[in-house]
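Is it possible to get an amino acid sequence alongside its tokenized fold?
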Amino acid sequence: MKLIADNIHILNPEIARALEEMDPEPIQTLTRKIESAGANAIDINPGPLRKDCRRRMTFLLESVKQATDLPLFLDSPNPLALETGLSVCRKKPVLNGFSLEPGKLENILPLAVRSETDIVGFLLHPDGRVPGNLDERLNLATDLTGEAIKAGLAPEKLIIDPVVVPVSWENGTGQARQVLDCVSLLPELLGFPVKTIVGLSNLTSGTRPTDKTLLLEETYLAMLAQAGLDMVLLNIFRKKTVTKAGICDDIKTSRIWAY
């Protein structure tokens, strides 16, 4: 299971300030810490970047590139930010992402098709609503895959995100169970070994990082690994969660265990 660090985002005050002042040092310092913490890739989330989009996205990615050679996920609802990122990155990044929302089908999915890069597809209704049950998620997966293939995306370029919601939501634990079922059923449903990803941080969003919430995150990650999850977006500085991911991989791949 690949660990995708979600620590570089616009809600981080240091990143927001660095982006506003065009100061690369905080971005590069954080990037180096992320790599040292064991990330396999980094999610770059500048938000919608409505102001001075091309210059800011270029600055952000150039800053990160000077500090690491890790693969990147470009995480923005702004097609111009993603298009800029595609032109700046040395290696093809993953676009994160699109859904059945018309604007994203029309403006973001074609970027992945033209650049022949991987793209994350969120299982959301066309109006942006989160599915309410497993059947809705599976139907959305079929529709999303159909739209991607119709647009010219190779099936192996698609990464499906079943959308983890906060456990504090009404039926939040039921939704968590349905995401597990969805991850395990997708390959059989779609007829090919589709890649899957979730945003683990969403599970405890809106709650303080207490021992109980951290244990919930670690436990759910182990269950996702058992369900067959390929990639996880997470706070790479939560050491116990990262350690749990490594142990899950050791067992699933039958690697020799060292005490």
Notes: Residues 172-190 form the longest helix (19 residues).
